[in-house]
Amino acid sequence: MSPTADVQNELAKLRSDLAALREEFDMVVRIARDDDGKVCNSQVRSNFVVAQALVIESESRKMRGMIGSDDDGAFISLLGKDDQTRVMVRVTGNEGTVEIFGDNNERAVHIFADENRQGNVAILSPDGIPRAIMKGMANGGAITAVGRRDSPAPSCIRATTRVKSPSYATRCWRKCLPRKQAVPSALLIRKACELVPLLPGRPAMAFLFTRPVASRPSISRPLRWGSSLSVGHVGEGENQSAAVELHDLPGFGGSIVCRDKSGEIALDLGTAGEGGAINLTNHTDGGSVHLHTNDGGGIVEAARTDSDQRILLTAAKAGALASLMGENETAAFMQMTKNGGSFGIKKGNHMQGFVGVTEDGESGTIMLTNADNTNSVNLAASKQGGRIILGSDDGTAQRASSPLK
């Protein structure tokens, strides 16, 4: 083969290799040129980059951002003209956050979703304290603002739904600073906040909890409709509840609620209108006591929550009544009026024993029957005399009376 043919073959091979190289290069970077043939910096595109970080530069070769990743996740950092991070989008594990920073590199806005898929937005003051908080929940939403001295003095709250039963928050605001940042989280260490719905059957309200220690709620106040206070906590994890709650509800009165270690209400003291009530419940042994007063009198009730056994005491202007209810529909009662009274024992709707004195105090009666009401004894006495009536199951009755005066 002649030398000329060899050169032509080598040239053809180089052309083929160059075309293949250009094709592979275009898969990594695409470069566009201006009309004068110069490279257009704004039209340089990278299809993929295999690296831990990618720097975003301006036409003047200044860094304006960074896209990177580490073992915890990925991040996007956008810088301002002062080369300080202004926006940080971060994914850590399965959690995503968006942070916006101010002039002094202090976080000003923090957006995140908690483990219940509830959206949270916190607006922080320059000293790192959340001053405005917005939270979206399954049964409504809430917005509040925190006053001076870190006090939970909210200025605005709105919710759109009603709740069927009391629901108190069990989780504090999550840590807001990046995990590897040395400065402790202001929301977690210095002040932690929560918004929770409260009061069954009423428009959902949010409570702002302040927590000097992240895992131990200490005090709360409502964001609208009356004032309330919650102190301490009981239970662990998802079963946490406020230990003591104090409520002031306009038009209804006030109440104090204490919960046992399981989170159930053990003591409830309240006022409503002209009266008040006290409820004590032992959810472990099944006993309860209820005391209630109003303008008509008072009621005391002791009962078992797991059976029909109960004692009921009532007092009113017209008199007093004591009732004892047992198993199998048995009951005993004692009633006292101004001049008279009575005592009876019932089985279902059937009176088996009765002793009574009339209101005028002039006569008295004693009545006894058997279980099926077939045999009875009736004794009566008045100013006119006395009588005894004996009844039997065959329908006959024997009667004996004293002479009339």
Description of the molecule:
With 405 residues, the protein is mainly beta. Among the domains are: 1-48, no CATH class; 339-405. Helices cover 8% and strands 47% of the residues. The strands form 3 sheets. It has an 18-stranded antiparallel β-sheet, with no helix packed on it.
Give a quick rundown of the structure.
By secondary structure, this protein is mainly β. It contains two helices and 29 strands.
Secondary structure layout plus pairing:
Elements (H helix, E strand, L loop, with lengths): L2 H26 E2 L14 E2 L6 E5 L5 E7 L3 E7 L5 E8 L2 E7 L5 E7 L5 E6 L5 E8 L2 E6 L40 H5 L16 E4 L8 E4 L4 E8 L6 E9 L3 E7 L5 E8 L2 E8 L4 E8 L2 E8 L5 E7 L2 E7 L4 E7 L4 E7 L2 E8 L6 E6 L6 E7 L2 E7 L5 E5 L4
Antiparallel strand pairs: 1-2, 3-4, 4-5, 5-6, 6-7, 7-8, 8-9, 9-10, 10-11, 12-13, 13-14, 14-15, 15-16, 16-17, 17-18, 18-19, 19-20, 20-21, 21-22, 22-23, 23-24, 24-25, 25-26, 26-27, 27-28, 28-29
Annotation keywords:
405 residues; mainly beta; 2 helices; 29 strands
The chain-level mean pLDDT equals 68
Characterize the biggest β-sheet.
18 strands, antiparallel
Structural class: mainly beta
How many helical stretches?
A: 2
Helix content: under 10%
Distance between the termini: 163 Å
Strand content is over 45%
Query: How many E strands?
Result: 29
- What ranges have pLDDT less than 50 throughout 5 or more consecutive residues? 150-226
Oligomerization: single chain
Shape: rod-shaped
